[in-house]
Amino acid sequence: MELHVYGYGKLDNKHYTLRDLQLFYGENEAGKSTIMSFIHSILFGFPTKQQSLLRYVPKSSTEYGGKILCQMEDQGIVSIERVRGKAAGDVTVQFEDGRVEGEETLQQLLGKMDRSTYQNIFSFNLDGLQNIQRLKKEELNRYLFTAGSTGTDLLLKLSQDWQKERELLFKKSGRKPKINVVLSQLKDLEKQVKEGKEKNDQYLPLIARRKSLESEISALEKEKELLSDKRENLVSVNENWDTLVQFNDVKKRLSQLKNLEFPSNGLERMNELKIEERQTSAYLETVKSKQKNLQEKLESKDLDLTLREDIPFIEELLSRQSSYLKWKEESGERSRELKMVQSKISDIIRELGLQIEMENIPSLNTSLMMSENIQQALDHQTKLLHERESLEKLQEEEMEELQSIERKCENLEQRLMEEDEYQELQRKVKVLTGKHSTREQMEWVNLQVKEAEENYTRKKASYSYQMLISGGAFLIAMGFGLWGVFSGNWIMAGMSLLFLMVIGGTIFQSRMNVRNETDTLQKLKARAKEIQPEKTGNLDTAEQSLMEQMEFRNEWKQRVLSLEEQELKIQKLHERKEELEKAIVGGEGRIERLKGELYLPADFHWKWLRDAFAKMKELVYLYETFTHLSDEEAYAEKKVKEFTEECRDWFHLHDLLFTTVDEALLQLKGMLQDLEKRRLVVENIAAELEPLSLDIKKHSIEIEKIRHDIHGLIHAAGCTGEMDFREKAMKVQERSELWSQYKGMKTRLTQKTLDTFLEFNSLEESRRESTRVIQSIDELSKELSSLQKELASLSYEIKTLEEGKSHSALLQEFQSKKAELGELAFEWSTFTLAGVSLSKTMELYQKTKMPKVIELAEENFRELTEEHYKRIFLLDDEMIKVERMDGTTFHAIELSQGTKEQLFISIRFALIQSMGDKYPLPVLIDDGVVNFDLARTKAFLSLLRKVARDHQVLFFTCHPHIRQSFTDEEMIVLKREESIRTS
Questions:
Q1: Do 65 and 17 contact (CB within 8 A), yes or no?
Q2: What whole-number distance in Å separates Cα of residue 924 and Cα of residue 936?
Q3: What pLDDT score does 972 carry?
Q4: What is the mean predicted confidence (pLDDT) over 267-271?
Q5: Strand (E) or helix (H) holding 5
Q6: CA 34 to chain centre
Q7: Beta strand extents in 365-458 (DSSP E only)
Q8: pLDDT exceeding 90 applies to what percent of the chain?
Q9: Which phi and psi (to 5°) does residue 489 adopt?
Q10: 3-state secondary structure 766-796
Q11: Percent of residues, the chain, with pLDDT higher than 70
Q12: Are 288 and 699 in contact (CB under 8 A)?
């Protein structure tokens, strides 16, 4: 990939060629974050002014944007260029074949991924999941689901918001949520409504009087209302007098059209007859079908009575039903017990890692002898290990003592004279002891010369004898060698040559010994000649120096002896250690044999053998229980099967469908009841067929009569056929329309107005009656006023006696609160259903995607922690746990900051790896190893290179020690003078 920055922040016309793994190294403000933002902007658009993201608009350049050249698997080299334009910039996508596309094609190349999704999956730092160690399994599943589906935690936040909204509406033991408050208010209102109802009984007399007054007032008001209606009718007549006159004219016109002859309701009657004809025909067909069905039923096998002979067998089967149910229940119970026992057996095998099949469990040796062998092997191995530990400590102490002796020897050797100086000092002391000492020295030298001559004579004689023997052996070997050469026996010739070489070496060594003795003898003789008396000197000083040297030499000899003894002691300790090591290896072999006999895996720690042996004894007991239960289950199943086969054979013998025994037994019970019923059914069917035949004849006659009536109706209308009849009906319809007009006018005027109009011969009479009615209404109004005053006084008296709200007001408020509760419950159920739907979706994701992500995360975590941790746990309702190699588990929150960050990176890389096939996009990482030590930083870089096999990785850092792990080709160094400031 290649970056070409036209202008972005303070970057102006910059080119960067990128490899599959590329390091951007630079100090703070060197431009690392700006390059990351540049890649985001080219792929997903420039941030708008309304967004909180930095826009990096250049201040020193008019160009804004740049270009990315990338290699795509199916498209080849693709150029993505984005420059200043609309809100997110104008983008151009150019392919190798010359095609030029826009924003929509870019989205397809990115797999419809937006900026937020990309930044939360492929471009990240340690701010993304700093609190991941506090997430529980459900919350982490939600995070991975939302990050894997939308790339953000929006769904996670949305789910949490829904939960908060639900809790604001209702809590089981809450007081402040809205539904809880409304429920409390409803309880209080219900109590008040009951109290209000009781108060009504106390004021019953007053209420009765008030009702009486209300009845009188109601009667007067009705009378007044009647007079008012009459007044309104009179007013209507007076106002619509001309319309009423017109109404009479229409009525006269209708009377002129009444002579049109047509049967009364002729068209309706025709339609009714047609309908009756169809209904009768349908009924006739139904009766005929019923007759046919009864005939078929009478002839069918359903009424076969041949099963009467099998009644004793059926009764015998039904009598054994209780035994069958008992066997079936026992089979189910044994099956459940077998599953429990088998589950326990599987748990023990899995817990111990046994390499054994279930049928081989009885071969496990759980005898007392095996228990004793295990105990002895463990005790012996423990004793050897303790002894080796003690021996190693003792060996260290003896080595320290050896080093101390060696240091003392070195000090003494530094103070000792050279051998020549020491001999000279001895000679000097001897000379100084007196002139007579020279003769003694001469005698001593002569004695040494004599001993040397004796040695020379002895060795020379030995050399002569050896030469004689060697010469004979040489001739013999030469003879065998020549014989081997001439006879072709090269093995003999080679052995002869080797023997000759040995003889030659022996002769040469003997000759050298004789020569050395000759040289020694000559030196001693020369020494004897050179001895002359010397001048006397300071005898005390010489003797003192000689005594000191002798003491040093004696002490040095003692130290050397001690040194040899110490070396011998250490050698013995070393030999003992080797013996212990052999014994330990032997003990391990013995333990391995015991593990092999117990089918334990090779990596099973020998210290757990006692517990494992106890588990195996339990395993053998469980297997015996399993075998016993299996036999009982087999016996019950055999009985059930025999009973089932007996039922099935009977059903198959009679060509009946057999499904289950229970249904068969029910069917047999029904057969016993049906056998008697069928006889009655046959008689009933025969009885039903006779009236059906009569009914068919009757309705056939009715159809003929209906058709005769239709022809009579047509004849009565003076028509020749049905079509002519309906044409005449259309003319009658015209008369009906005039009648409708008449009725419409009558409807607008109301019947009361028409009746009132007919009562008067002139408009003046109507007006006089209207004046009289108005006077009557005024008199009634005065009487009503008097009664209403009395009613108001009575109501005030009742009101003064009442306390609190009225019963109706309380009831209305109670109903209002119930409606409010219904609305809040609907709102709560909406959030609940939404949360359940999201949970179901996340459960599906957990079953399909989550295991793969966690498996990859564990592999990454092991590599990042150098195999220090091996597993990641996600238990229900618990936060993330990790397991160390020694089996110790920790909550994520208990880990160090660096290890927590390694856990986060492991999960994030696992998410990237699981989505690699669908989204092969580059990964951007900004300084993700701040809290890593050197070893784990190397492990992270190794994992980074592993991820770079499938994804291009751009890593941004300011740490020099990371820079050293990359080659020059993999590294781009950013200078601070290229620092970027945002607009």
A1: no
A2: 20
A3: 92
A4: 78
A5: strand 2-8
A6: 36
A7: none
A8: 1
A9: -90, 85
A10: HHHHHHHHHHHHHHHHHHHHHHHHHHHHHHH
A11: 87
A12: no
Q: 298-304: long-range contacts at Cβ-Cβ below 8 A with a sequence spacing of 24 or more?
A: 298/682, 298/685, 298/686, 298/689, 302/678, 303/678, 303/681, 303/682, 304/678
pLDDT in tens, 882-904: 888 888 888 877 888 888 888 88
Q: Is the pLDDT at 269 greater than 50, yes or no?
A: yes
Whether 774 has a pLDDT exceeding 80, the answer reads: yes
Which pTM was predicted? 0.37
Beta strands in 403-553 (DSSP E): none
Q: What is the pLDDT of residues 275-334, one digit of tens each?
A: 887 888 888 788 878 878 877 776 664 545 556 667 777 777 777 777 877 887 888 887
pLDDT top residue among 723 and 65: 65
118, 40 Cβ separation under 8 angstroms: yes
- C-alpha–C-alpha distance, residues 753 and 746, integer Å: 9
Spatial distance between the Cα atoms of 3 and 215, rounded to a whole number of angstroms: 96
Under 8 Å CB-to-CB from 758, ≥6 apart: which residues? Answer: none
CA–CA dist 555, 563 (Å, integer): 12
Distance CA 955, CA 945 (A): 11
* φ, ψ at 797 (rounded to 5°): -60, -45
Residue 531 phi, psi (nearest 5):
-70, 120
Q: What is the DSSP string of 948-974?
A: TTTS-EEEEE--HHHHTTS-STTEEEE
* Cα–Cα distance, 217 to 786 (Å, whole number): 10
Which residues lie across from 882 on neighbouring strands? Answer: 872, 890
DSSP labels for 560-576? Answer: HHHHHHHHHHHHHHHHH
Is the pLDDT at 144 greater than 60? The verdict is no
Secondary element (H or E) of residue 926: strand 923-926
Instruction: Tell me how long the chain is.
Output: 983
pLDDT at 542: 73
Residue 133 pLDDT: 45
Q: What is the CA radius of gyration of the chain?
A: 61
The pairing of strands 953-957 and 21-26 is parallel
Evaluate whether 165 touches 925 at the Cβ level (below 8 Å).
no
Q: Hey, how many other C-beta atoms are within 10 angstroms of the C-beta on 47?
A: 20
Q: Which residue has the higher pLDDT, 382 or 360?
A: 382
The rounded distance, in Å, linking the Cα atoms of 713 and 727 is: 14
Report the alpha-carbon distance of residue 89 to residue 83 in Å, rounded: 6
